[in-house]
Design brief:
Layout: H1 4-20, H2 27-74, H3 76-80, H4 83-105, H5 110-120, H6 126-142, H7 147-151, H8 166-178, H9 182-197, H10 206-219, H11 223-236, H12 241-259, H13 265-272, H14 289-296, H15 305-308, E1 313-316, E2 329-335, E3 340-343, H16 349-359, E4 364-365, E5 368-369, E6 376-377, E7 382-383, E8 385-389, H17 395-408, E9 418-423, E10 428-432, E11 452-459, E12 465-466, E13 469-471, E14 476-478, E15 485-489, E16 503-505, E17 508-510, E18 513-521
Antiparallel strand pairs: 1-2, 2-3, 3-15, 4-8, 5-6, 7-10, 8-9, 9-18, 10-16, 11-15, 11-18, 12-17, 13-14, 13-16
């Protein structure tokens, strides 16, 4: 409250004058009061100007938010289908509304603060914002999107346009930095710097961006470029102590390289992979990462024309199941070996909406079974929310379960409940097996129904971009199509696992992906799908 300081000083001065004598006895002294009053008015005007500036900021924010919410509430799911919109919503509620709260707290607007404080308990937290930022980075990696494309909101099939500001890009880089992810730190800090250099307004300074960027580049091993950026930082802020210290340290390292040329081999290798400031993406825990992501992009293995000729489409009546003879399902081969088929018009729009309605209140973070304990737990490689529906929940659940029985010829009595999953922003399930392997025999022991013999997967929404079901082992990519379902066996007739069925749900790039699935188990299906003559029949 700096503007009040002169006023307080003046008031103290007036008190001093009053102690020395009566004001009316000296016109000269009273003229001094005139100037004192003028200073008070100037101080008051400065205070009013500060408050008006505050109110203008609040008013501008309110108008921007009103315009944005009118657009978002008119089509919430469609709006959030754009991953940048989803990220910015989480960021706004976790960070920017808090900044507004701090601004308003300087005023006496208690009503708004009380309301905001109550509402904040339902807002996303820091973990949510971090998760949203990582989701954008996941999309960036999987679909080979550069930060500028994401920043401009240039996603395929989107109805809404959204942009990332300098501060947004800085926030993305800072999230990566906090996670020790210097590769993405560099990408997003470079984008923040590029937009800042272009003249875009920002609350974050170039010094702050360069501070993170130079250190992250140093961590990637590019000392020379880290040195260049640190020099630029020091030119902007000569008093920056850490930058000065870093620069001396970098100079020492470069001197050592000159003295010991053999040690420079690593640097030469790094420089060869960092042309134009683009660094090589580090390897991670997933061995088939490149194949998996290529399939998600629609690249990778293509079936030969000879094999394609083996694929066909037909009407399927479930081996003359009485329920399907009059109204058989359209069946189409998606892959020959292992055999994967797609069925059309499995779920109606009305059934889909009812299932979603039943599932939404029960949605919780999707889990996986711990291979050692069999206990369900969350995992970073599965990002979605799911719920389980019982036949007692609604007649539509029993109806759908029966339909899957008719189509597959398997019994649902020993199958797991109908699982409904919604993949949100960047939602995915990395390559995994549906069945338990020999090194994890207790995964389904608690169920007492044997291993998962087959998977029936219903697509309950179209997805504008991304979200394919892919099989990295043999290169199949199956794209979501509302109302259709895909089916495959996880086990050979011998009961041995078919390791080729390792599959994944690709990150949703644009859209909102809803699926439901039924896992059929071995028990009860011994005579419906009898053993074969060999281990791999």
């Amino acid at each position: 409250m700096t503007p009040w300081i002169p006023s307080l000083l003046l008031m103290c001065t007036i008190c001093t004058w009053h102690a020395k004598g009566e004001f009316f006895t000296s016109i000269g002294q009273m003229t001094d009061l005139i100037y004192a009053e003028k200073d008070l008015v100037q101080s008051l005007k400065a205070y009013i100007q500060e408050e008006e500036s505050k109110l203008l900021k609040i008013k501008s924010w309110a108008e921007k938010m009103e315009s944005l919410t009118i657009k978002s509430t008119s089509d919430p799911e469609g709006y959030l289908a754009h991953p940048v919109n989803a990220y910015k919503l989480v960021k706004r509620l976790n960070t920017e509304w808090l900044e507004l709260e701090n601004l308003v707290l300087q005023d006496s607007t208690k009503g708004f603060i009380t309301n905001l404080t109550i509402q904040r308990q339902f807002f996303p937290n820091e973990e949510d914002e971090t998760g949203a930022a990582k989701a954008l980075m996941r999309l960036q990696d999987t679909y080979k999107l550069d930060p500028e494309t994401i920043s401009k909101g240039e996603f395929p099939g989107t109805k809404y346009r959204s942009f990332l500001t300098v501060d947004d890009c800085f926030g993305m880089g800072k999230t990566a930095y906090s996670d020790g992810d210097y590769y993405h730190t560099v990408l997003w800090m470079q984008q923040a710097l590029k937009q800042h250099d272009s003249g875009e307004e920002a609350t974050i300074s170039k010094v702050e961006i360069l501070d993170y960027l130079s250190y992250a580049i140093f961590q990637l091993g590019d000392i020379r470029r880290a040195m260049e950026l640190t020099r630029r930082l020091v030119s902007l802020d000569p008093s920056h102590e850490r930058a000065g210290s870093n620069m001396r340290y970098f100079e020492m390292l470069l001197e050592r390289e000159k003295e010991h040329p053999v040690l420079n081999e690593t640097s030469d290798t790094i420089e060869a992979t960092t042309q134009g400031g683009i660094y090589e993406r580090p390897q991670d825990y997933l061995p088939e990462r490149d194949i998996y992501e290529a399939l998600c992009r629609g690249e990778g293995v293509k079936m030969t024309p000879r094999r394609q000729k083996r694929l066909s489409c037909r009407y399927h009546n479930g081996n003359r199941n009485p329920n399907l003879i009059i109204a058989p399902f359209k069946e189409e081969d998606e892959w020959d070996s292992p055999h994967i088929v797609r069925y059309y018009d499995v779920l109606s729009d009305e059934e889909i909406e009812k299932i979603k309605e039943l599932a939404k209140p029960k949605l919780a973070r999707a889990t996986v079974r711990d291979p050692k304990t069999g206990v369900l737990t969350t995992a970073s490689y599965r990002v979605s929310k799911s719920s389980w529906l019982e036949e007692e929940d609604d007649p539509v659940v029993a109806k759908v379960n029966n339909r899957m029985e008719y189509i597959t010829g398997l019994t649902a009595k020993t199958a797991e409940l109908l699982q409904v999953a919604n993949y949100g922003m960047g939602g995915q399930y990395e390559p995994h097996f549906d069945f338990s392997r020999k090194d994890e025999p207790d995964v389904f022991k608690r169920l007492g129904t044997g291993n998962r013999v087959a998977t029936f997967l219903n697509y309950m929404s179209d997805v504008q971009a991304g979200g394919a079901t892919v099989f990295p082992d043999f290169g199949a990519a199956i794209w979501p199509q509302k109302g259709t379902a895909v089916f495959w066996y996880n086990l050979f007739r011998s009961g041995e696992g078919d390791y080729r069925t390792r599959h994944a749900a690709c990150p949703v790039l644009v859209g909102c992906k809803w699926v439901s699935n039924k896992w059929f188990h071995e028990r009860g299906n011994e005579f419906l799908r009898p053993c074969g003559r060999t281990e791999v029949d």
